[in-house]
Specification:
This protein is of the alpha/beta class. Helix content is 42%, strand content 14%. The relative contact order is 0.15.
């Protein structure tokens, strides 16, 4: 079931010179069929769809044959979305750079989501290989979307080598735990006020996405929470509403949390005079 999007939409945002109206980036892995994926993308309103080249060629090609990439292209075209290839599965800067070059040829785009895993258990990004690869790819003319942790120093190093957007995690990939360290994410937003920031990985519920947007992040990227749900299109719509609502709340100005109760209609200390 596809649910209509809210009548009031949050403001547009810009990444690498491209203006986007949707703040929802959606993954393309693990859907039961291309038709379900297409419905989920349409329900999400996403204008950017990520694709892991390694996983896509290994998994989707086995299920859908040699036309897997053409099928994904057609799916995105039908939804009016562009592809963002990623280097998921890479373990070194050298491997990621090579895969990025392949992706540029296959998908005809300079955009690349840079993902280099440093730990097999948490799938935590390797900060050293990540910065090295980001610098190399930027020199090669790529527009890099680095998947990183919420470490402020690492994020600054990525900006120093030419990245114009950051994609810090909320929690380990696919864990569905939500924002494990809101303070670190809030610090990133405060210290990098003009940098596009996309929360990527670990979100499991629409409320998690709304919380990220209420912190002032520009967008959310997720895959598992939609693809692995009972009804992916409906879950995609739920996330779309949560993302839009969270951003609208941030733009409207959230009230500050208080330690004590404060009446919404103050009576003051004056007696009420009755004629």
């Amino acid at each position: 079931m596809i649910i209509e999007h809210p009548a009031v939409a949050p403001s547009t945002w810009t990444v690498y010179g491209e203006k986007l109206s949707s703040r929802f980036l959606i993954g393309s892995a693990g859907y039961p069929s291309p038709a379900v994926l297409q419905d989920a993308i349409a329900a999400s309103g996403a204008q950017v769809v990520t694709v892991g080249l390694k996983r896509h060629l290994a998994g989707e090609a086995q299920r859908h044959g040699d036309d897997a990439i053409a099928l994904l292209r057609a799916t995105c075209r039908a939804a009016g979305a562009r592809l963002l290839p990623n280097t998921a599965g890479c373990r070194s800067a050298r491997e990621a750079v090579l895969l990025a070059q392949m992706a540029r040829e296959l998908f005809e785009t300079r955009w690349i989501k840079l993902e280099i895993i440093g730990d097999e258990h948490t799938l935590q990004p390797d900060p050293f290989e990540l910065v090295e690869a980001a610098e190399h790819l930027t020199m090669l003319g790529f527009q890099v979307f680095p998947y990183c942790t919420d470490d402020l120093v690492v994020c600054r190093r990525l900006l120093d080598v030419g990245c114009e957007v950051l994609m810090p995690w909320a929690a380990p990939i696919g864990s569905g735990q939500g924002l494990l360290d809101p303070h670190a994410l809030r610090t990133l937003r405060a210290r990098l006020p003009r940098m596009p920031l996309i929360v990527d990985a670990g979100l499991g519920a629409p409320s998690h996405a709304a919380e990220a947007m209420e912190l002032g992040f520009d967008a959310v990227l997720l895959n598992s929470a939609v693809a692995q749900s009972v009804d992916p299109p409906q879950m995609a719509a739920a996330f779309a509403h949560a993302i839009a609502g969270g951003r609208l709340g941030y733009e409207a100005g959230l009230i500050a949390a208080q330690d004590m109760a404060r009446p919404s209609t103050p009576c003051g200390n004056e007696p009420i005079l009755v004629d």
